[in-house]
Amino acid sequence: MTPMPTPAAQTDLAAEMRAIGLAARAAGRSLARASRAAKDAALRAAATAIRDHAKTILAANAEDLTFAEGSRLSAAMLDRLRLDPGRIEAMARGLEEIAALADPVGSTIAEWTRPNGLHIARVRVPLGVIGVIYESRPNVTADAGGLCLKAGNAVILRGGSESFHSSGAIVACLHRGLAAAGLDGGAVQRVPTRDRDAVGLLLAMNDLVDIIVPRGGKSLIARVQKESRIPVIAHLEGNCHVYLHASADPAKAVALTVNAKMRRTGVCGAAETLLCDRSVAATLLPPVLAALIAAGCEIRGDAGVQRIESRAKAATPADWDTEYLDAILAVRVVAGLEDAILHIERHGSHHTEAIVAEDRAAAETFLERVDSAIVLHNASTQFADGGEFGMGAEIGISTGRLHARGPVGVEQLTTFKYVVHGDGQVRP
Amino acid sequence: MTPMPTPAAQTDLAAEMRAIGLAARAAGRSLARASRAAKDAALRAAATAIRDHAKTILAANAEDLTFAEGSRLSAAMLDRLRLDPGRIEAMARGLEEIAALADPVGSTIAEWTRPNGLHIARVRVPLGVIGVIYESRPNVTADAGGLCLKAGNAVILRGGSESFHSSGAIVACLHRGLAAAGLDGGAVQRVPTRDRDAVGLLLAMNDLVDIIVPRGGKSLIARVQKESRIPVIAHLEGNCHVYLHASADPAKAVALTVNAKMRRTGVCGAAETLLCDRSVAATLLPPVLAALIAAGCEIRGDAGVQRIESRAKAATPADWDTEYLDAILAVRVVAGLEDAILHIERHGSHHTEAIVAEDRAAAETFLERVDSAIVLHNASTQFADGGEFGMGAEIGISTGRLHARGPVGVEQLTTFKYVVHGDGQVRP
Predict the structure, then answer these.
(1) How many CB atoms lie under 10 A from the CB of residue B207?
(2) CB of A299 within 8 A of CB of A305?
(3) Does A414 touch chain B (CB under 8 A)?
(4) Phi, psi for A192 (deg, rounded to 5)
(5) What are B375's strand-pairing partners?
(6) How much is the pLDDT for B237?
(7) How many CB atoms within 10 Å of residue A109?
């Protein structure tokens, strides 16, 4: 059992964090040159270690759960924290899937030859050292560790204090994988204390850490964005919209809306607001809303919606700006395409929005004009996911505009450099 | 003549900056949908306006020069500030060259179809609103304004107070171009005051500005990186290296080193340190150092260099970390390839480094291992330039690792979104 930090340990925290950063920087330099074979061998050996040590991981998780039950964690948080044999197998399989992905490092993104004979290539290289700060789910330890390793980055993991022992047991398996492949164990490290001061220290190490990826609730992201001296790839909220255009196919409207809202209500790609063209509201909305209500969804509608569906509650202005992450849907009747686009511009979070329409021109206008990371035509917003995009696993979905937008997979965890070959060219 | 801010104007500065930001956001939304023809017409009309109003621009510049001569500006700063008919023509031609570049907006970076039939495309879109903060050179007003416009971004320009009137006259020409093409004048705005508080206000408008590009000296960049609540694409120093490998061709060694150091000493791609393998120092260095000295360069060498060239001064440890931007070169004898790579890792700024070598394997090791934005084999470091790379004009060279690394041209001033076409797919 890991002891809680004592005052003496507290004093040494800054030195300890710098030692972690220095070890990560050194491991990052060697990992950047590691072969695909070595990285994949490490990932597969880590998967095997997770299966072989499932009992140890479950015991560590039980310790975390005991600790958590003494605190005031919500049922949802407790569920996220809980591991079982299925979730452990999913972690192991996740690492094997990352091993099967193409290695982004060293690939040529573009190349060209200049009139003076200089050959210029833009070549993918690792980002360097990545700090991942997350909350209760212990499986993020394996996912984030595996993705960073595949992309040739060293990673410093700072999990939630409630998953402290679970994460430690999982990191031990990742270390077994690195050791089996002859790679530097410093490539995957975790902050070995529950002390929250460690986060502040990590966010200030801009000479040793190249990027911070926070995964968690709004208060965590806000703290990281405020304090970080290091660039942040942040996942803010997903206030996602489904828009039923006048040309929508009624069957698609029902299926897509119910799936976008109800398949899983707690994911960032879940729809939170439904917009429907006024001209078709009386015919299109009744079956859509009935299906949603039958599936257990609460409807909060404007006056137009309440006229159509008596079970709809009245929406307040705050509803248009709310990411429920729950079985609740705000519903509004709009004048048409332009009105829908303006509503999304005003209230959306630039994450994921879908139009249901048979009119191709209307769909193209929506896809072009709506300024979100992901825009879909006749498909569920719940496809907002790196795996569903064919990018393999993801470390999150970026709602920022720089570097990575949308799902952040192994490619997005790299940068590039320009490699120039000449034969003695000087600049005139 | 624009008055200096009064206390009353001061009070209104925050409101004025927000008004600029809101106008930029609105203009950015419409510019994102502008056709290539309209944007290029605006750029060409702006070029014509600059030629037509050359006298007005020169008169404004004369006013700035009078103001500057009263202050304590260095001769180099005064030279950067001074416009003449040649520099005005270069600005106009620069805008026409930007018009001739391909439009990055709307181009498909990648596309693929998933097994479930979803078609996914990664499509380039503008970044949004860009804030450019720069120092004395008034031509940055035209270059940055033109590049941002081409990439579909609205721009807020904050030039140095010494170039206040020159920049104003140039912005007026950009506005003539926008008007001639029927585009929103809010797409190019400048901060209409010399008040330095405006910078702080700009850096805090993270809801209205998507990215900040600082161009200038270390203190400006440091202030921006410290204060900004908006992501920054920063150009830090270029402490660039030339490394003469044991296999270097002697003639190339002389030509490349002299060009890398002396072609222009004030550019970021100018070499600041020369490394040479010990095994060939006695034969390779004498002609290289003699040519540099003949060209007016001061040599600061380690003991090995001073033995070879008596005119070399003694280098101090600080020399390895100094970006001279002057006719001074630090020179060091190294044990070999590994030693050279370690020296660059320890002292370099990750900007641009070159190896001179006929041994291809040694060159490849250098290009792979040296972690800089640009690495060159047998070519001058002074090729570190967007124009020389064939990217057209550039707004700067990024030494950061995220989003843009190396020259920042129109493509780097865009982001992307995922456009997904389905025919009713729901996620299982």
Answers:
(1) 12
(2) yes
(3) no
(4) -90, 40
(5) A419, B353
(6) 85
(7) 13
Q: Does the pLDDT of residue B203 top 60, yes or no?
A: yes
ipTM of this complex prediction, to 2 decimal places: 0.91
Helix (H, G, I), strand (E, B) or coil at B102: coil
Helix, strand, or coil (residue A411): helix
Beta strands in B172-305 (DSSP E): 188-190, 211-215, 240-244, 271-277, 298-301
- Judged on CB neighbours under 10 Å (0-12, 13-18, 19+), B357 is buried
pLDDT at A1: 40
CA A176 to chain centre: 26
Instruction: Tell whether the model's pLDDT for residue B131 goes beyond 90.
Output: yes
Cβ distance A114 to B390 less than 8 Å, yes or no, reads: yes
Across chain B, how many H-helices and E-strands are there? 14, 16
Tell me if chain B has a CB within 8 Å of the CB of A424. yes
Contacts of B298 (CB under 8 A, 6+ apart): B313, B327, B328, B329
Of residues B200, B191, B204, the one with CA closest to residue B160: B191
Measured CA to CA, the distance from residue B326 to residue B338 in angstroms comes to: 28
A77-131 pLDDT, tens digit per residue, is 888 899 999 999 999 999 999 999 999 999 999 999 999 999 999 999 999 999 9
**pLDDT grade, residue A226 (50/70/90)?**
confident
Compute CA distances B294 → A10, A155, B35, B102, B299, whole Å: 59, 50, 53, 43, 11
A342 touching chain B per CB within 8 A: no
Q: Could you give the CA distance from residue B309 to residue B312 in angstroms, rounded to a whole number? A: 6
- A380 vs B114, B389, B425: nearest CB: B425
Q: Does A380 touch chain B (CB under 8 A)?
A: yes
Is B418 close to A375, i.e. CB distance below 8 A? Answer: yes
Q: Do A417 and B423 touch (CB under 8 A)?
A: no
Q: How far apart are CA A31 and CA A38, in angstroms?
A: 9
Q: Report the pLDDT averaged over residues A367-384.
A: 97
Give the pLDDT confidence score for residue B2 in this predicted structure.
45
Question: Going along B258-310, which residue ranges are E strands?
Answer: 271-277, 298-301
If you average pLDDT over residues B31-47, what whole number do you get? 97
Among candidates A383, A396, A312, which has minimal Cα distance to A353?
Answer: A383
Closest CA in chain B for residue A117? B379
Angle between helices A139-150 and A85-100 (to 10 degrees): 10
- Please tell me what DSSP assigns to residue A326: S
Residues B159-189: pLDDT tens digits?
A: 988 999 999 999 999 999 999 999 999 999 9
Rounded to the nearest angstrom, the gap between the alpha carbon of residue B369 and the centroid of all alpha carbons in its chain is: 24
Crossing angle of helices B85-100 and B36-52, in 10° steps, is 170
Dihedral, CA of residue B392, residue B394, residue B397 and residue B400, to nearest 10: -100
Nearest to B367 by CA among A420, A273, A129: A420
- Which amino acid appears at position B155 of this protein? V
Q: Where are the beta strands (DSSP E) in A288-341?
A: 298-301, 313-314, 328-334
DSSP letter string over A224-241? HHHH-SS-B-------EE
- Assign residue A63 a region (left: φ > 0; alpha: ψ between -120 and 50; beta: otherwise): alpha
Q: What would you report as the CA-atom Rg of chain B, rounded to the nearest whole angstrom?
A: 24
Distance CA B170, CA B54 (A): 9
User: How many Cβ contacts (< 8 angstroms) between chains A and B?
Assistant: 172
- Cβ-defined contact of A367 to B419 (cutoff 8 Å): yes
Place of tokens 């930001």: B21
Which helix (H) or strand (E) covers residue A65, if one does? helix A54-70
- Alpha-carbon distance B395 to B143, whole Å? 7
pLDDT at residue B7 greater than cutoff 60 = no
Kindly list the structural domains of chain A, giving each domain's residue range(s) and its CATH number in brackets, ordered by start: 12-235+408-419 (3.40.605.10), 240-383 (3.40.309.10)
